[in-house]
Amino acid sequence: MRLPDDVLAEFLLPTRELRDDLPFFTKVLGMRLETIFPADDPSVASFSGHGVRVRLERGADVPPGHLRLLTDAPDSIAEGQRELTAPNGTKIEILPRSPRVDQPKTQHEFAVRRLADEAPWVIGRAGMHYRDLIPSRLGGSIIASHIRIPDGGPVPDMVHYHTVGFQLIYCYRGWVDVLYEDQGDVIRLHAGDCVTQPPGIRHRVVEASPSIEVIEIGVPAEHVTTIDHEMTLPNGKGDPAREWEGQTFVHHVKEGAAWQPFRIPGFVARDTGITKGTKGVAGIQVARFDGGMPPPAKHDADIHFNFVMEGSMTLNAEGQEPRKLEAGDAFVIPPGMVAQYSDCSPDLELLEAGLRGDFSTTLLA
């Protein structure tokens, strides 16, 4: 049922003495007095401002409440105070309006996540199923998710954006149609394709094939998703080379991509161009076994995440028991740890994410 357009919502708060609260809500918080009564001894008043409406009522049997004012100019309200208490007991907090990216310090660890361990799938946004590939999230510095949409078809998604430092969508199985701000019409990602979602780019998932699976990487682990109720996608070609906080939109297509020597001998790789597109913030490569015995190696990346897409291998890491890995498994190798990939099957293929993307590798005899 559609509600009438003139409906107003109002928060009810108690007051002990309205004459004390009146100047606080109008002069300190900058709200506008809308109604007040009775005239001879006012005990009820309504105020509006900052996107809300509140009603103060003497003797109201409700708690005093907690009001948060969001602004990117906090010094313009309440003489720069960040926490206040109204005479009626209502707590007031002045907080940033625009979400910010706070990157936690990485808590380095060696971690392996096996598909066979039956980690739980949880239902997340837009009905999608999520499987956490790094349970510790390295202290909140990264989230890596294996996402699937079992039924396929249209996706009940809305135009939205993320406040992130870096975000990757890699199509692992099937295909998915997505819309991105300033990038023209629908982009179909097939298995092996990927895109970056620069901070703030508006986008929407449109449709997916049955049993679609993607790998999503986000930095930091906890980031805000904001719905944009005003923008409609597609919004035209716009400026495909536009930057969002220094990053461009990168769309890597598997078909026709060039393979070149990987940082570890015994593999070839296709570079997605993401290191360049993010100006070194992150690097994403797909590595394929090419024969021989890969040597032990160590790296200096702050975060080094891998997902086994096809085939199998044994991961030998310094101070750890050898781990037999298969498709669907994931692992993290901390900086400075010596590791070696062995017993690689001919069809072994890895998705590697490094942050930063311009990290270096040391090969050991």
How would the blueprint of this fold be written?
Blueprint: E1 11-15, H1 18-28, E2 32-37, E3 44-49, E4 52-58, E5 66-70, E6 83-85, E7 91-95, E8 111-113, E9 122-123, E10 129-132, E11 143-149, E12 153-154, E13 160-163, E14 166-173, E15 175-180, E16 187-190, E17 194-196, E18 203-208, E19 212-219, E20 224-227, E21 243-244, E22 247-248, E23 251-252, E24 260-261, E25 267-271, H2 274-277, E26 283-289, E27 297-299, E28 303-310, E29 312-317, E30 323-326, E31 330-332, E32 339-342, E33 349-355, E34 361-363
Parallel strand pairs: 1-4, 5-7
Antiparallel strand pairs: 2-3, 3-4, 6-7, 8-31, 9-10, 10-11, 11-19, 12-18, 13-20, 14-17, 14-19, 15-16, 15-18, 17-23, 21-22, 24-25, 25-26, 26-33, 27-34, 28-31, 28-33, 29-30, 29-32
Q: What's the short story on this structure?
A:
The chain has 365 residues and is mainly beta. It contains two helices and 34 strands. The protein has helices at residues 18-28, 274-277, and strands at 11-15, 32-37, 44-49, 52-58, 66-70, 83-85, 91-95, 111-113, 122-123, 129-132, 143-149, 153-154, 160-163, 166-173, 175-180, 187-190, 194-196, 203-208, 212-219, 224-227, 243-244, 247-248, 251-252, 260-261, 267-271, 283-289, 297-299, 303-310, 312-317, 323-326, 330-332, 339-342, 349-355, 361-363.
